[in-house]
Request: fold
Amino acid sequence: MAAAIPRFIPPHIVPPSRPLGRLGFVAAFLRNPLEAVPRAAFEEDFVALGGEGVSRIWVTSPALVKAVLLDERDKFQKITQIRLLRPLLGKGILTSEGADWKWQRQASAPMFRPQDLAGFVPTFVRVAEDVMKKWRAAPPGSTQRIDLDMTRATFEVVSATLLPSADAPAFERAMGLFQKSGTWGQLYAAMNMPRWVPHPGILAAKRAIAVMRGAVAQMIHARRRLQQDAAVEPDDLMRRLIAAHDPESGQSMNDEQLIDNALTFYLAGHETTAKALTWTLYLLARSPDWTAALKEEIAHVTGGAPIAASHIEGFVRVRQVLRESMRLYPPVPMMSRQAVADVRIGEHDVKAGASILMPIYAIHRHRRRWEDPDAFDPDRFSPEREAQMPRYQFMPFGAGPRVCIGLSFAMLEATAMLATMLQKVRFEAVEGHDPLPMARVTLAPRGGMPLRVFTA
Ligand code: HEM
Reply:
């Protein structure tokens, strides 16, 4: 785009100017785990904290991230993530390792082949239209909670494309309760507290888990009844999970494993995309020039027709904006692994037991790798400039064999939904509300994301 666009620095975390002591770390972490990321992680490649027997290591260079997620991956496991999420997600695809993980990944992968996803575009468009219908019913310029609307919409997408439909409000309430205790769980895991030490919200979280697993169990029973009645069974992810067999044991998934995986896909598959859309709409509300550029591109590619799969490739700038939005506000702001053996990455020796933190948020704003890192500048992702970018410098979907399985699905969904909304809606920021990013399970806007909505 023309260089005349004014520089825009959206809300961001200012990292602590000096290393936090233990108490400072706890206070910052509970307020917002991103505030506990040391300044050095934005400036250096490898930051080891904790002195003797170092336990917390921040890794931010593309080469070192690649070593952890790809080259030396056998020496690292997702111990902390598994500790936090196993009570909810059991031993599903996100929370298992080794052979257990591999066959579940292989069973799910066919649903996510890029060439097969185009058939979902009409659903993405229909769901975006439904949200706009709700906005249209309100007076022009009304304030809408975009974060909540996007969460409901992306939940509806998962229900309508991959899995049987679920009771969205019940899930939302239960998920809210689970997340409330989540930061304490993360803190305890980060500090290696024993599992039996109770923390605030733990009982509510247990109840929430029971509600969510119970709801999914009912859906699975309903599907099994459908199979017995020889009724037409939808060709969805659930059908593939039910049909899959572990190549080693020959066993198919029992009900517990089906619940683990269905719940994993409901949760991993909607909050993330919802946050990508929420932050993107905020950035566009603050950037009239980029909004105009996208509207022009969408009108040019579609000629005003509803978005179809054949248009997606032509939305070059829409994709640039989505990528820049996920650079500044990565929906999954932090990844971690634990070393299960002594290992050397780059020039650094890492001892077994060390926690490796890969703060995607800081990797995406690294002072040495990005020019003007806190500024919103989708031109960084022009096709020519993106082709020069090292693979592990921009990684909203992770990397290596455990890269997000829903990457292509999410990009297609976000592109189709964003283009549909921009065809007919204009968004304005609410004066005085510039939300800071907060690391919860996903990257949430502090105080939510109200925007003023004008529908055509
Ligand atoms: C903008 C949207 C999304 C973002 C930013 C995102 C991000 C990520 C990241 C960073 C990981 C890797 C975690 C790690 O290695 O520690 C991951 C894994 C995963 N994602 Fe996504 N995700 C998104 C959308 C989706 C969707 C739409 C689905 C499914 C419908 C999905 C399902 C999963 C699953 C099942 C895994 C675990 C894969 C494995 O361990 O093999 N995600 N995602």
Observations:
- The mean pLDDT is 90.
- The chain has 17 helices and twelve strands.
